[in-house]
């Protein structure tokens, strides 16, 4: 079994899955792994010819997109293992539809860390930490807590938009605090909902019931811009809005207007990168919203990080990759296989 890890230019020496990462070192110990540098401007057919010589191709952040013609003429290629989050920019529909090639993504790998990040942002805003930091910096000995909205999760109404692996892990974290939990996910029935979660049938119902709204949906054509001004207006004064999914799910101008008015508080790990090409998941450097104390922006970093962990330890994503490569080598069914329906809902 021959495995290829094609790097794109400088990505070879950068990132969590570079040539010296624990994952690549373990793969090389177990299997025949080749690493090559692929220029970003390499013609598709030339790249396809290279890929046809391998049984497995690894894709991840910074990869060059798999040429769609491999879907009908794959050569030896039988499996594309996408190690990281986004899939569509690296693997086109033609490869998903191919009867010759299996594709997997990182599955439930990010669930714990991103759910933990969402929980952290939620508690930061629920306890009004940015406000108290602001008061300390301004030397206010007795901040006006009577005018603020420090709260508790107990009996608070929490709405979840999206009940995939991350949403489910987040719900597990909520349970000990005994809130009321509502969820909207058109692909999950009440019977499939986690225990103690009430399914709602519309976005309007979700927002009107929620004091805290947490976004865990994937970004796809159906969810893009699906949280609109009128939905945000249904949240009560002082509500919390938490998003660690994708900024493009939200009508960003309406969300920023709500934050600037002081009506709602927000913990945002992500923003609409199509609107912020320079700043990515952060507001513009001169944007007034950076100065308010009812919002926190974490720039798409709240779900990751390696502080406190062994630098040689394998991440959840690496472990899922290794397990699937093992399964493939043994002829066993793969986990987290991408079919057309899952692909449609993926980022």
The largest beta-sheet arranges its strands as 8-7-6-9-10-11-12
- Shape descriptor reads elongated
Mean pLDDT: 92
| CA-based gyration radius | 22 Å
Outline the low-pLDDT stretches: none
Q: What composes the largest sheet?
A: 7 strands, parallel
Strand tally: 12
The portion of residues assigned to helices is: 25-40%
- Distance N terminus to C terminus? 29 Å
- Summed up, the helix count is 11
Order of helices and strands: EHEHEEHEHHEHEEHEHEHEEHH
Secondary-structure-derived class: alpha/beta
Oligomeric assembly: single chain
Beta percentage is: 5-15%
Can you walk me through this structure?
- The chain is of the alpha/beta class and 347 residues long.
- The chain is built from 11 helices and 12 strands.
- The protein has helices at residues 22-30, 44-51, 93-96, 111-126, 129-137, 165-174, 203-209, 229-232, 252-261, 316-330, 340-344, and strands at residues 2-7, 32-37, 56-59, 79-82, 102-104, 157-161, 180-184, 197-199, 212-215, 240-243, 265-268, 295-297.
- The chain has a 7-stranded parallel β-sheet, with helices on both faces. Strands 2-1-3-4-5 form a 5-stranded parallel β-sheet, covered by helices on one side.
- Strand 10 (240-243), helix 9 and strand 11 (265-268) form a beta-alpha-beta unit.
- 36% of the residues are buried.
């Amino acid at each position: 079994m021959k495995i290829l890890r094609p790097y794109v230019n400088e990505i070879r020496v950068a990132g969590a899955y570079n040539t010296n990462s624990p994952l690549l070192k373990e793969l090389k110990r177990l299997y025949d792994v080749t690493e090559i540098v692929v220029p970003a401007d390499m013609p598709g057919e030339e790249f396809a010819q290279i890929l046809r010589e391998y049984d497995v191709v690894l894709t991840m952040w910074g990869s060059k997109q798999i040429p769609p013609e491999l879907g009908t003429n794959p050569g030896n290629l039988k499996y594309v293992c996408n190690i990281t989050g986004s899939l569509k920019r690296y693997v086109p529909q033609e490869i998903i539809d191919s009867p010759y090639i299996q594709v997997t993504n990182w599955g439930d790998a990010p669930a714990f860390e991103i759910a933990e990040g969402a929980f952290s942002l939620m508690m930061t805003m629920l306890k009004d930490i940015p406000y108290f930091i602001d008061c300390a910096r301004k030397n206010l000995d007795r901040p006006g807590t009577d005018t603020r909205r420090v709260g508790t999760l107990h009996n608070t109404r929490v709405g979840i938009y999206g009940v995939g692996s991350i949403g489910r892990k987040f719900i597990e974290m909520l349970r000990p605090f005994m809130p009321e939990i509502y969820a909207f996910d058109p692909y999950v029935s009440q019977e499939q909902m986690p225990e103690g979660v009430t399914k709602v049938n519309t976005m309007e119902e979700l927002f009107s019931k929620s004091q805290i709204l947490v976004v865990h949906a994937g970004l796809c054509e159906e969810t893009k811009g699906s949280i609109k001004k009128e939905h945000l207006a249904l949240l009560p004064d002082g509500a919390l809005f938490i998003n660690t999914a994708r900024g493009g799910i939200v009508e960003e101008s309406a969300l920023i207007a709500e934050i600037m008015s002081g009506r709602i508080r927000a913990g945002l790990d992500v923003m609409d990168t199509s609107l912020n090409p320079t700043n990515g998941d952060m507001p513009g450097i001169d944007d007034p919203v950076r100065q308010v104390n009812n919002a926190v922006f974490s720039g798409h970093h709240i779900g990751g990080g390696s502080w406190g962990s062994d630098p040689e330890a394998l991440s959840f994503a690496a472990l899922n990759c290794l397990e699937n490569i093992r399964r493939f080598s043994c002829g066993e069914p793969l986990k987290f296989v991408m079919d057309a329906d899952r692909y449609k809902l993926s980022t």
